[in-house]
Design goal:
The complex is a heterodimer of chains A (about 180) and B (about 575). Chain A is built from 6 helices and 5 strands; from the N terminus they run ααααββαββαβ. Chain A has about 180 residues and is α+β, with helices and mostly antiparallel strands. Chain A has a 5-stranded mixed beta sheet with strand order 2-1-5-3-4. In chain A, about 20% of the residues are buried. In chain B, α14 runs parallel beside α15. Chain B is about 30% helix and about 20% strand. In chain B, α5 links the parallel β2 and β3. The two termini of chain B are about 45 Å apart. Chain B is globular. Classes of the chains: A alpha+beta (about 180), B alpha/beta (about 575). Chains A and B meet through α1, α4 and α6 of A and loops of B.
Amino acid sequence: MGRGGTSSSSSSFESSNYPSVSSNSSNFSQLKRDLSTDLRLGLSISTSQQDNPSTPSDQQLLDWPPIKPFLREALASEENECNSATFFVKVYMEGIPIGRKLNLLAHEGYQDLVQTLDQMFNTSILWPEMDVENSEQCHVLTYEDKEGDWLIVGDVPWEMFLPSVRRLKITRADSL
Amino acid sequence: MNYFPDEVLEHIFDFVTSQRDRNSVSQVCKPWYKIESSCRQKVFVGNCYAISPERVIERFPGLKSIFLKGKPHFADFNLVPHDWGGFVYPWIEAFARNNVGLEELKLKRMIISDECLELISRSFPNFKSLVLVSCEGFTTDGLAAIASNCRFLRELDLQENDVEDHRGHWLSCIPDTCTSLVSLNFACLKGDVNLAALERLVARSPNLRSLRLNHAVPLDILQKILMRAPHLVDLGVGSYVHDPDSETYNKLVTAIRRCKSVKSLSGFLDVAPHCLSAFHLICPRLTSLNLSYAPGIHGTELVKLIRHCRKLQRLWILDCIGDEGLEVVASTCKDLQEIRVFPSDPFVGNAAVTEVGLVALSRGCPKLQSILYFCQQMTNAALITVAKNCPNFTRFRLCILDPTKPDAVTNQPLDEGFGAIVHSCKGLRRLSMSGQLTDQVFLYIGMYAEQLEMLSIAFAGDTDKGMQYLLNGCKKLRKLEIRDCPFGNAALLMDVGKYETMRSLWMSSCEITLGGCKSLAKKMPRLNVEIINDNDQMEVSADDRQKVEKMYLYRTLAGQRKDAPEFVWTL
């Protein structure tokens, strides 16, 4: 690891408002530059490097921040795996023969799910708390459970819904 | 007191349990030294190279339990090469040779081989407890030896060790006749375990109170285990991946409901966050919660869980809980004594917490004593507020991910903030700082931190004066570790006698030179001054003016160690 003297160039992580650079911050910047990557600290690794996990990860600083190797590994594997658990279900919209597939585990709850479905099918799904202005154009979300029954989505807690759902169907509000 | 027969003194000393108190007792007078030494059973050696095993055995013939520490603390952060040292074999070999009745062994940052584990298992018939923290050098074969031969095994606790995994038969080696297990922690093992053997083991261990599983133990086995061990006090969940099978989930909920004694929860190494609600049942009784290995749990799930944990005293989490999540902690966990917030994006990216979370905690949790906080930014104002709200801190460790970042609002150094902390927290024993810091903060520390025992500094200070203020001031300083600071020979050599009052000093990427280190070593023969030259940066005939990359010095009665690798020079 080299050590620079005072440097007048600002590196990206230093506050751009702070006028002069102390020798310690240039130590840290020298540390990073010596690793000869074109990685700038402003980049968030998780978004940019999922396709090519080998490039920046091994050139990252191994001794900063001061966390134990176990935690470092656990966090790194989380970055690489993204969503390790998936649960895809079929979704059909009434009147459209070709359905879609959706990963339920990528959503945090009903609201998240409905948002995704609204976008996927270009509609607005009726939700219990919503104001119904024009009910003919709205849809309702239903699901088939393990016993083959069709039920309205949203009655049970999300955690109980997940183990029991088999597939989803978006039906017109007025056909119920 | 000299009129009492020895047995009476011994009996009285039995009530003195802390290592420090026993050390004090032994210094009162010669007779007390003799008696205390002859009956001490538990010994703590903070630096395995400070003294030889033979001397320990000679002084404490009643030795039954020992805790040894090896590598310096910065080894946790990849600053010390793996084979630097800290081998425990000579100790075990000496114990075996001298017929020490060893029952308990605890090691931290040491190297222990399979041969050594086997030697332990064969040499000490009453061996009961093995606790290994951040150790390496062994495989599951060594564990198999312990499992097979230690008939009275009570505790096998592996914390964050680097273990070469040869697959899980070690667990099956515990004989069917062994029913004494109280504590089993194998969370750090990477490989599979024999699940049937694990179930049988739990079934025949009525005294089992602490169980921490690794990621290879799935939900359905966890459920079966919990059914057999309803008296567990400490549980480490391994794999908690959602299984779209409601029957297993319901069984798990039933099993959890039966565990009325669980006070400590950890693990969740592989987790799908949506089924955490099963654990909401235990939350009201929890005093300790460690979710720092569960990056799969989103902030919202974390918060939901914590809202149920009103009795929490200890919390370790990731920063994805956010400042808002910490406000929930502050309003829910009024008994909180210790909190650690780790970064979930380790690559100097964005920490999700700031000074706001810290201040919220200080306001809401009056009993807070110990904190480790990785954050995006800090301000002097926040630190001053925290110092006012929480004068009872004994351990205060702050790490700003950008280590030279000034006050986020005023762009000033953080000297005043940390100054307030040391001034207000009169019982502060451990401090670790970051952010932009000048010599001034060291002046404050030297002036006010009278109880400070351990200090970690990185990227701080302007001149030698900084380190000099420290060495002048902190009378109780035992461990000082410095990296990337502009401290040179003048600071190092200012008060060489001081280092004999301390356990150790680490300096890396500072301004000290080979000449300075040589001079120190010459003046202080009872210090080992080691230069760690792991990148072949220095040649044997190096110029004294060359800067030393890594230096580690420690006081010792054992002289130069004989097991130093080639790249370690003891001056």
